[in-house]
Every structure is written in C-alpha cells, then in structure tokens.
Amino acid sequence: MFHRITYESWTTIVPIIGFILTFGVFIAIVIRAILMKKKKRDHLANLPLENENTSPDHGKED
After folding, report:
1. What are the TM regions of this chain, as residue ranges (predicted)?
2. Residue 39 falls within a domain, yes or no?
C-alpha cells in the first residue's frame, strides 16, 4: 500500500527546497512588515530623508 519515494536525481529536489526557503523568508518579511507599529514604520519610511550630519559646515566647500 505504501511505496517508498525515491528520487533518481537529487538535482530535481534542490530547486524545490530553494523555492520553499525563499518563499518562507518572503512571507516572514511580509508578516513582520504588516505587524510593525506605525511609529516604527514612519521612522523607517523617512530614514533616507533624514540629515546624517548636524554640523553647520556640511555641504560647504572651501
């Protein structure tokens, strides 16, 4: 009734495992982004726009 499943070539299962791992990581990132608090989400959204240097000389050339 039960037959043992054997793969003739291990190279057929490697892409399946890779896809499952990639899909799992993608789903984990999506869930984390959905559950993120609004304050943290807004901070990360504005992060590239924030000024890193607070010195008044920033951007001036001598």
Report:
1. 12-35
2. yes
The torsion of the CA quartet 37, 40, 43, 48, rounded to 10 degrees, works out to: -110
**What does the DSSP assignment read for the chain?**
-------S-GGGTHHHHHHHHHHHHHHHHHHHHHHS-HHHHHHHHHGGGS-S---TTTT---
Token pair of 47 as six digits? 């992060």
Overall number of domains in the chain: 1
Q: Give CA–CA dist 5/13, Å, rounded.
A: 12
pLDDT digits (tens, 9 = 90+) for 8-40: 777 778 889 999 999 999 999 999 999 999 999
Residue range(s) defining the domain that contains residue 35:
21-46
